[in-house]
Amino acid sequence: MQQSYDVLFASSNKYKYQEASTILAEFGIKLGFFNCKLLEIQSDSIKKIALHKVTDAFNQCKKPVIVEDDGLFIDSLGGFPGPFSSYVFKTIGNNGILQLVNKKRTANFQSVIAYCDKKQLALFDIKVKGKISEKIHGKGWGYDPIFIPQGQKKTYALLKNKNKISHRYLALRKFSNWFVRRQ
Amino acid sequence: MQQSYDVLFASSNKYKYQEASTILAEFGIKLGFFNCKLLEIQSDSIKKIALHKVTDAFNQCKKPVIVEDDGLFIDSLGGFPGPFSSYVFKTIGNNGILQLVNKKRTANFQSVIAYCDKKQLALFDIKVKGKISEKIHGKGWGYDPIFIPQGQKKTYALLKNKNKISHRYLALRKFSNWFVRRQ
Question: Which end is more exposed in chain B, N or C (fewer Cβ atoms within 10 Å of the end residue's Cβ)?
Answer without folding.
Answer: N
